[in-house]
Specification:
single chain; 3 domains; 17 helices; flat
Length: 511
């Protein structure tokens, strides 16, 4: 029995090590995400989840009975890891890591122990960043909502104000509610904290549900109040009140106020109905055994199959990282023409910092004019010979808010080409203060004309398996919409340029 127990423990440790090694890329991505303001609580979530799991086991001291149910979780988690690698979709691997930990628990500790630790596994989800596209859309919506609510507060206190999108016009000053003020850096940490408080509170389910769900309006409402306070102070004392130390201090003050409101709500809920208490001991390491007796057959089927499956996953991931790819020949973008038809261009260059972040294989950036005094059309082509996690095309819709622009409208547009064919593009009208620009972009993925990131990810997964190719490009055109200029005039200009340069693209972006 002692030898069986030692074998069981040894395989459990080996399985955990294999999971961590196989998922090392996901772990690195998580660590980088935890350095950002929105997910800086991630490290604390992992540590607290570990304490929660230990305390939950201590309460029941379950018997360890290895279960076959762990294998599906393990294999699904491994499958998500492969999808993440082939489709350059890092979030899939991060969720797959949690599924594999659940599978590890089922296969070595059994159903009872895993059921006891479910709150800890759920809490780990708060350490996982949202998919980039979803977070970008959420950020834009929260920027607009926070701006609208902030303007409402300023109206109430009698400050004349005008709102255009996420621009707040105070007359003498214009405030732009940028991505850093969208409220996500309050919302995500506060939701994780709200879940923890609700879990520690020994009270009826409805109280705990109300406590957790209230974190959303608290975060959004107080972020809008922060914007209103900035607007008020700027109106009274000038633009400096929206910058530097004062701006950062207001941010920390708002988050502390969020926590104070959450604790006040908790105190109020405790006064309603039956008495309740906090389980502060959940945040400490328990004394004594966490697992009771071990099943008489701890080693055989489930544990052995688990280790075998983990070996397959770890080996398969290593092989995928060295999978041969076909890299089609294409002309270097250094030879891209600056004169195309009636258009003459001036080449631009990306900074070393941006190049280091984008990890491009090749690119082209230039401003073109048809006439000396005519508005320019900016052409940007980002080409990747191989797309993997961290080196893949990015949707301009995700980057626009980071530059302080607000997306006023978005649509999928069909552009008629001189050849008689049509090209699908995503059309964005973006605004910042009094400036406006028209943006066309699409993804050229191995000859496919795609406008959506999700479809680009799907075909990347498909083609990496069937064609052994992951090359692709983002093509983006931008032209200013001058004050007094109708949008159709800008559309005609950018459409004419697109017709002239499109035949040239096929020399540089392989099909």
């Amino acid at each position: 029995m002692r030898k069986a127990l030692q074998a069981w423990m040894g395989m459990g440790v080996a399985a955990l090590v294999l999971i961590l090694v196989a998922q090392r890329r996901a772990e690195l991505d998580l660590w980088q995400a935890w350095q950002t303001a929105e997910y800086s609580h991630g490290i604390a979530v992992v540590l607290i989840a570990f304490l929660l799991a230990a305390q939950r086991l201590k309460e029941s001291v379950p018997v360890a009975r290895p279960s076959w149910l762990g294998l599906p979780f393990l294999l699904i988690g491994g499958g998500l890891q492969l999808v993440a690698h082939l489709a350059a979709f890092d979030t899939a691997a991060e969720y797959g890591l949690i599924l594999q930990l659940v599978g590890l628990s089922l296969s070595f500790l059994g159903r009872a122990a895993t059921a006891a630790m479910v709150p800890a596994f759920v809490y780990l989800l708060f350490a996982i960043p949202l998919p980039h596209l979803f977070q970008a859309n959420l950020s834009q919506d929260l920027q607009l909502l926070s701006s609208t609510l902030g303007v409402g507060v300023l109206d109430i206190v009698g400050i004349p104000v005008f709102q255009e999108g996420n621009i707040i016009d105070l007359g003498g000053y214009k405030l732009q509610v940028v991505e850093a003020c969208n409220g996500l850096r309050y919302l995500f940490p506060l939701m994780s904290f709200g879940y923890l408080v609700a879990l520690l509170l020994q009270a009826p389910f409805w109280k705990r549900a109300v406590l957790f769900m209230s974190t959303i309006p608290i975060a959004i409402g107080l972020n809008a109040l922060r914007i209103a306070v900035i607007g008020f102070t700027v109106d009274q004392w000038g633009q400096g009140m929206a910058e530097g130390f004062i701006h950062d201090f207001e941010g920390w003050g708002v988050f502390i106020l969020c926590l104070a409101l959450l604790f006040a709500e908790t105190w109020l809920l405790q006064k309603i109905g039956a008495p309740s208490r906090f389980r502060y001991d959940y945040l400490t390491w328990p004394k004594g055994a966490l697992i009771g007796n071990v099943s008489p057959q701890p080693v055989p089927a489930a544990a052995a199959c688990l280790v075998a499956a983990l070996l397959v996953v770890a080996f398969g991931t290593n092989r995928l990282e060295h999978l041969p790819e076909i890299h089609p020949q294409h002309e270097s973008f250094a030879a891209f023409p600056l004169s195309i038809g009636a258009w003459n261009g001036q080449q631009g260059y990306l900074s070393p910092e941006i190049l280091d972040a984008l990890k491009l294989s090749d690119y082209w950036l230039a401003d073109y004019r048809a006439e000396t005094t005519a508005p320019t059309v900016n052409l940007y082509i980002a080409y990747y010979a191989s797309q993997r996690i961290g080196t893949t095309t990015h949707s301009p819709s995700n980057c626009v808010p980071g530059g302080g622009w607000q997306i006023a409208s978005t649509a999928i547009k069909q552009v008629a080409l001189s050849s008689g064919a049509t090209l699908n593009v995503t059309e964005l009208l973006i605004r910042r203060a009094d400036a406006a620009q028209l943006v066309y972009y699409w993804f050229d993925e191995r000859g496919r004309n795609l406008t959506e990131t999700t479809m680009a990810k799907w075909y990347l997964l498909h083609d990496s398996i069937t064609m052994h190719r992951t090359d692709g490009a983002l093509i983006r055109l931008v032209t200013p919409v001058a004050i007094g200029e109708a949008q159709p005039a800008a559309e005609a200009r950018i459409g004419a340029f697109l017709n002239d340069i499109y035949p040239e693209l096929k020399r540089f972006v392989p099909e």
